[in-house]
Amino acid sequence: MDDFSSIIAPIPVDREWIAKLLKRFPNPNARCHDKALVVAPMVDQSDLPFRLLCRKYGSNLCFTPMIHSGLVIRDESYRRKFTGTWLDPADRPLIAQLCGSDPDTMLKAAQLVEPYVDGIDINCGCPQGIAKRGDYGAYLLEQEEKLLKLVKHLVKHLRVPLSVKVRLLPDPEINPYKIKRPEDDEFDIPAASLALYGKLVDAGVHLLTIHGRTRKQKQDLTGKADWDTIAKAVKLYGHRIPIFANGSINSYEEVDECLKITNVDGVMSSEALLEYPPIFYKIPQTPKRTIGRVQLANEYLEFAQQYPPNEGGQGSGIKCIRMHMHRFLHKDLQDDIEFRKKIITDKTIPDLAECIEICRQKHLRENHVIEEEKLSWYTRHRDGRETVAKLQEQRRQQLENGDCKEEEDNDDDDSIQECGNFFSGNNEEEGGDY
């Protein structure tokens, strides 16, 4: 027999629930107030200290790091990290993302978390091999019956709105390398993706966040996100639920362009925000910056001292903090090998504070100009469409000539923002939560 939650009527789908949240929890530092400016769910990186930093600089809606549904149920220390720790009133509105595919496990996990957040999100975006092995993330999109069963089960029982973060469906065979098959056997990525999104809307989801890439488009094959398909989704389903766009957002100019092209209710950023949180700030930071990377690193460290990521901050501790330092100071790390070695090996917040001071002193000696700072870490896999097209063509030729096999998705540090290989071991030096 179901528990008492089974008799609770599903929450009605309110087309304006996101707009109402933004009015209930306004952020005066946001560049605009009628659209959601969203911090993406990022494993070990959208931790509480980072969310507070992003809100300081204009984000008006945040997602938690991805929460593993099985772990939050069976591991008490992991559960404490994600339940009862949302103590800062400034950290609203907030949506918690869960990963998993078993309906009962996902529901139990969601019910543990929902008292502390404004919505629950299902991760259907992670492209890594760990998600394939764990049966979650982007691989759920290719199991339509299982995904719809999960959505309907959660919608029936949850007391907060349910959202799903999706990608475009990949060609079932070899699409990312553009290998042509017979014309009558072509796979229409936009049409297949839009059809699935419609079924999710019909199943009762309250929000869709669409990452305009397939799970194969990552690292050197990232390419530009497909905003046109997102725009089509808005035309088809935007009158029923709010829709967010994700992908190819590294400045407010791109936010503005994306809003004009897609007419979405909000724009989500991940990697660009990791390197430069003020993308959404009320004071424009392009073409010239007024807030430098050293300042951001310092301010994040102050939040991390207040909310240690391994305690109430929802990260893995010093590893989480080091990762943020790496993102903020990426350009300096490329220029100074010894400085890079120090950040990699530092074990305490005071050590990392010393790193930031070293960087600050270096900038003073070199007459560093904040206004001339540019994104560095974000652009490591984004050399433009021409470069991506060449890589795709090379890969296509290799496959056609039998020179190599299509690779499995690897679990790499550069993809942690959507998934992360961090679910084994309790010792931080052996991996811990990262």
TrEMBL record:
Gene Ontology molecular functions: flavin adenine dinucleotide binding; tRNA dihydrouridine synthase activity
Gene3D superfamilies (UniProt xref): Aldolase class I (3.20.20.70)
Record's keyword terms, sorted: Flavoprotein, FMN, NAD, NADP, Oxidoreductase, tRNA processing
Record organism: Fragilariopsis cylindrus CCMP1102
Enzyme Commission number(s): 1.3.1.88
Top EC group: oxidoreductase
Residues covered by region (Disordered): 392-434
Descriptive protein name: tRNA-dihydrouridine(16/17) synthase [NAD(P)(+)]
Cofactor: FMN
Listed SUPFAM superfamilies: FMN-linked oxidoreductases
